[in-house]
Amino acid sequence: MTTKRYTSPDPELDSYYGDLAAKDLRPLWELGEMFTSEPKAAAVPHRWRAADLHELAGRAGDLVPIERGGDRRVIGLANPGLGGAPFIAPSLWAGVQFLLPGELAPPHRHTAAALRFILGGRGAYTVVDGDSIPMTPGDLVLTPGWTVHEHHNPGDEPMVWLDVLDLPLVIGLEALFFEQRPGNPAQQCPARSASEMFYGQSAGLVPVGNQTPAFDGPSSPLTRVGVSIGDSIAGLYGAFGAVMALLDRQRHPGKSIPLQDRIIDVALNESIYSMMESLVPDYLAHGVQRHRTGGRMEGIAPSNAYLCADAKSVVIAAIPTPSSSGT
Ligand SMILES: [Fe+2]
Hints:
This protein is α+β, with helices and mostly antiparallel strands. Helices cover 24% and strands 18% of the residues. It is built from seven helices and twelve strands. The strands form three sheets. A five-stranded antiparallel beta sheet has the order 1-2-9-4-7. A five-stranded antiparallel beta sheet has the order 6-5-8-3-10. A two-stranded antiparallel sheet has the order 11-12. The longest helix is centred in the last third of the chain and has 23 residues. The protein is flat, with a radius of gyration of 34 Å. It starts with 10 loop residues before the first helix and ends in an 11-residue tail after the last strand. Fe (ii) ion binds next to strand 3.
């Protein structure tokens, strides 16, 4: 018997409880305290003073070689409300990591995801899946789960940052595992990582507190993304027109309109309309407004030009929409 045995003043019920416990069963009606009317938080508000953390982290730098701490010299923040568990909150672990000049925290990866707030120091960098990211005070570096990461401090100042991992959550899911990876030599860290250049200059991240006019320059992170779809489609139709003119000249030598007299006129708007299939005519002619259909292609049937045995082609098209019901 490993589960809790409940008791009752009623001898028959008490005996029943004994039988349940003997079979490792627990009655739900005795677990009422679990279902409270409002959340019960065990973690309590607590302040860890920066001066204490710096002082104690500095002493760890003197006393503990980095190899001794599982390749990371980190002091975890244990919330006093969690009964001694090494977590800052029931679902989060947090700790202060300390990397001395010339030290390397070698590469590894784990299923728990991490973020790092850089607190102090200069000249260090972290590498996440091969992307070297400079670490300066105030920076936030994200390390998604199972990405390989390592920390280098080639500078001459101790480096301190706050690590936060969803360790308790992943432990609760019984999904925590870890792998050490082959080491990499120290390298030159660029001023901006590939991640910053990719995500910081396209949709998704915009500097907070800045007005758009300040970002009109060529180095603005608010760059125009993608291509001009209208010009591209119209250009494609123009190219089709040129190819057809050449084909006509080849098939009808001496009879075709001279190329210099041909004009291929492509309208930008109509090129766009052609890409919208019958979207606009549906609405203009029948008042039909299309809605999202997920993966379904409403009213679309296979269409193509097929070569027949007699070397002739037949075009088969079928679009049964309100504005075009023929085949
Ligand atoms: Fe790690």
